[in-house]
Specification:
The chain is built from 3 helices and 6 strands. With 131 residues, the chain is an alpha+beta fold. The protein has one domain. Strand 2 and strand 3 form a beta hairpin. The longest helix is centred in the first third of the chain and has 18 residues. The chain is elongated, with a radius of gyration of 24 Å. The termini are far apart.
Amino acid sequence: MTGDERTTRRAVARAKEGWRAGHRRTYRPWIAEPGLWLQCDWEWGPKVPGPGGRSERETLLFCAWLVWSRLRVALPVWDRTPPTVVSCIDSTLRAIGGASTCLLTDNEKAMSIDRVAIAVRHPHVVAAGRP
């Protein structure tokens, strides 16, 4: 190959761009349909007096919303354990009067136990989702 260092850098840059062109990730638009997605997350709730009115205790809010709807559900709870999560999901589905096709959550330990390219769901949550 003839030329100086700049010619080599240009050739390497063209080769890299050609390789990247065939190896880019494909992004699909997220299309939300009415009733398809139910999303949920956690937020800190108000502090409430403890037993006997002594010290304040923090609460958590299980917040869920139905995409393409103004429907929101906020349930106060004490913890994020799997039984509490299943109970909150059950109460939410009863409040909205049905089940959405998909439930979108974060990868919290109450819902997922591991991540191997995708989230590995907690066995209690998976068992609760079966008919």
